[in-house]
Amino acid sequence: MLSAGKAPAAGLQVDYRSLVVVLLSPLAFALVFASWTIFAVLGVELKSALHFGEVQFAALLAMPMFTGALAALPMAALASRFGGRRVMIACLLLICPFLWGIAHSRDYWNFLAAGAGLGLGAGSLAAGLVYVAALCPRRHAGLALGLYGAGMLGAGLTYFLLPLVSQAYGWPMAPKLFLLPILLVAGLLWVFAEDAPRVSQPEPDDGLDELEAGDRGGTPARRWLPPPPAVCRLALYYSFFYGAFVALALWLPGYLAAQYQLPLKSAALWSLLFTLPGGLGQILGGALADRRDFRDLRWWVSACVMVCLFLLSYPDFTMQVHGIYGDLMLSFSMPLGGLVGLLTIMGLAMGVGKGSLMCLLYRDHGDDMPRAGGLALALGGLFASLLPLMFVLGNEWIGIRTAGFMFLYAALAVCMLVMFRDPDSRPVVRC
Question: The pTM is what?
Answer without folding.
Answer: 0.82
